[in-house]
Amino acid sequence: MKKLLFLIGICSLTSCQNQAQNKVATISQTKQLVMEKQTIYQFKVKDLSGDEFDFASLKGKKILIVNTASKCGLTPQYKDLEAIYDKYKDKNFVIVGFPANNFGQQEPGTNDEIGAFCQKNYGVTFPMMSKVSVKGSDICEVYQFLTQKSRNGLQDSQVEWNFQKYLINENGELEKVIAPQVLPTDAEIVDWISK
Description:
Number of strands: 6
Shape: globular
Strand content: 5-15%
Number of helices: 6
Radius of gyration: 24 Å
Oligomer: single chain
Largest sheet: 4 strands, mixed
Strand order of the largest sheet: 4-3-5-6
């Protein structure tokens, strides 16, 4: 009887140790998955026309992602964005615009109205996506990636205002966050594009 109780005790102890080791391994694997840096290439979104836009199609290019608005004091940045896009688009560079109405209701238009405004006033030819939310409880997936270190591997950030810029390197990784007031033609951005 004593031998039987001793064996049951040993089995229970071994079982507890195995469960504890399994829990540690599971926690470690979960942390690794959460902290594993993602890339922009996993995302598919809709453009202003409602067509699918696959970020995987931009592999090997530097990407500037910007949240835009038509009725903002910074709206004239469209002109500079178009200028640098036109200058560098044949040198593995692209700009992707995301209209957003998160700041002062400065992007109230529909996707069609936004597209017409951009074309008529600034001759925008870089890809423009459907209107999204770039902060808050309804933040779109791309901006979750851009603003959360657990996803982008670089830093946590908040979109401060319209025309905040996110610089993505040729491997689809977030490399820099640029404040809204910094012009697209600023040396910090142009030097990054051309290096």
